[in-house]
Design goal:
Structural class: mainly alpha
Number of strands: 2
Number of helices: 10
Largest sheet: 2 strands, antiparallel
Distance between the termini: 83 Å
Oligomer: single chain
Strand order of the largest sheet: 1-2
Helix content: over 70%
Length: 346
C-alpha cells in the first residue's frame, strides 16, 4: 500500500509540474505569433506608406491636392507605426530606465501614446478636409469657395498638424514621471484630464463623422438620385472615363473613412477607460484596439492599389524601377498622363 501511495504522490507531482509547463509553452507560442504579426504589420505599413509618398513625389501627374492630402495620411500612419514600434520594444525588453530626464521624455512622448493621438487627429482632420474638398469639387464644381488649390495645400496640411498638436498639448503638458510610484501620472490634474480626453474623443469622432457623412451623403445623392453629379443635370460635362475616375475616387475616400472610424472607435473607448482608471476591464480591448489601429495604418496603400488604377500603375512602375528594370517607356507614359480633373490621378 505504501508503494502505491508513493506512486500516486509521484504522479500528482508530475501532473502539477507538467500543467504549468504546458500553459507556459502555449503562452510563449501566442506571444511569438503576436510578435511576428506585430512586426509584419509595422514593416508592411511603413513600406506601403513610404511607397505612396515616393509615387506622389516622383510622378508629376500624381501631384494633386487630393494626393497630397493622402500623402499627409501616409505620413501620419508612418509616424504612428514608428512610435508604436518604439513602445513595443520598451515594453518587451524591460530595460531599466535610470535617467529621470529619459523617463520623463518617454512618459510624455512614448508611454502615454500622445504622439499616436496627434497622428489620429491628423488623419481624422485630413479625411474631413478630403470630404469637404470632394463635396465642393463634385456638388458645386462651378464654385471656387471651398476648393483647394496647389498654392494653399501646404498651408492646409501645416494647419492640420498645428491644430492636432495644439489639441494634444494639455495632455502632453500634464503627464509626467512619478519617481516614487514609478509610472506616468497626471498628478493633481487627473480629473481635469479625464474630462478633457472625453471631449477630445468626441471632437475626434463625432464632429469629423458628422461633416464627412454630410459631404458624402450629398455626393451620393447627387450621383444616384437627382443626377446633379455626373448626370444630365450636372453643371459640367465630363467624359465617361473622367466620370468613372471620379466615382472610383468617391468610393476610395468613403472606404478609407469607414476603415478609419471602425479602427479608431475601440481605441477611443480604451483611452477614456485608461484616463478614467477603470481597471481590469480592458485587457482584450487594449490588444484588439492596438492591432486595429496598426492594421488601419498599414492597409491604406492596399486600398489605393485595389481601388485606383492610377495608383496601381504607379506602384508597379516604382517597384520595377527599384528592381533596376527598364521603365523609361512606362515612366514617360505616366508622366504625360493628363489630370483633366482633380481626381484623374486617383
Amino acid at each position: 500500500m505504501g508503494t502505491l501511495r508513493n506512486n500516486s504522490s509521484a504522479t500528482n507531482i508530475t501532473i502539477a509540474t507538467e500543467e504549468p509547463d504546458r500553459f507556459n509553452q502555449e503562452a510563449e507560442i501566442r506571444r511569438l505569433i503576436a510578435t511576428i504579426a506585430f512586426w509584419l504589420i509595422v514593416t508592411v505599413g511603413i513600406l506601403g506608406n513610404s511607397l505612396v509618398i515616393v509615387v506622389v513625389k516622383t510622378i508629376r501627374s500624381m501631384r494633386t491636392t487630393t494626393n497630397y492630402l493622402l500623402v499627409n495620411v501616409a505620413v501620419a500612419d508612418i509616424t504612428t507605426l514608428l512610435f508604436t514600434a518604439i513602445l513595443f520594444l520598451i515594453l518587451t525588453t524591460n530595460i531599466p530606465i535610470r535617467s529621470r530626464v529619459l523617463a520623463a521624455f518617454l512618459c510624455k512622448f512614448i508611454l502615454t501614446n500622445t504622439v499616436s493621438i496627434v497622428t489620429l487627429l491628423v488623419t481624422a482632420l485630413t479625411l474631413t478636409m478630403l470630404a469637404i474638398e470632394r463635396y465642393h469639387a463634385l456638388v458645386k464644381p462651378m464654385s471656387l469657395s471651398g476648393r483647394l488649390s496647389m498654392d494653399y495645400i501646404s498651408y492646409v496640411i501645416a494647419g492640420i498638424w498645428l491644430l492636432a498638436i495644439t489639441l494634444v498639448t494639455p495632455i502632453f503638458a500634464t503627464f509626467d514621471w512619478d519617481s516614487e510610484m514609478r509610472y506616468c501620472s497626471h498628478g493633481k490634474a487627473e480629473h481635469t484630464m479625464m474630462i478633457y480626453v472625453d471631449c477630445l474623443i468626441i471632437f475626434l469622432t463625432l464632429i469629423p463623422f458628422a461633416v464627412i457623412s454630410f459631404c458624402y451623403l450629398r455626393i451620393v445623392y447627387g450621383m444616384y438620385f437627382n443626377n446633379t453629379v455626373f448626370g444630365r443635370n450636372s453643371e459640367r460635362c465630363d467624359t465617361q472615363e473622367e466620370t468613372n475616375e471620379k466615382r472610383r475616387l468617391v468610393t476610395l475616400l468613403i472606404l478609407l473613412t469607414v476603415v478609419f472610424f471602425i479602427a479608431f472607435i475601440p481605441y477611443g473607448i480604451l483611452l477614456i477607460l485608461k484616463v478614467s482608471k477603470v481597471n481590469h476591464t480592458y485587457g482584450h480591448l487594449q490588444i484588439g484596439s492596438q492591432y486595429l489601429t496598426l492594421l488601419n495604418c498599414s492597409i491604406n496603400p492596399f486600398i489605393y492599389a485595389f481601388q485606383s488604377s492610377s495608383y496601381r500603375r504607379a506602384f508597379k512602375l516604382i517597384i520595377k524601377k527599384m528592381l533596376c528594370r527598364d521603365v523609361s517607356y512606362e515612366l514617360s507614359e505616366l508622366l504625360e498622363m493628363r489630370t483633366r480633373t482633380s481626381v484623374r490621378s486617383v
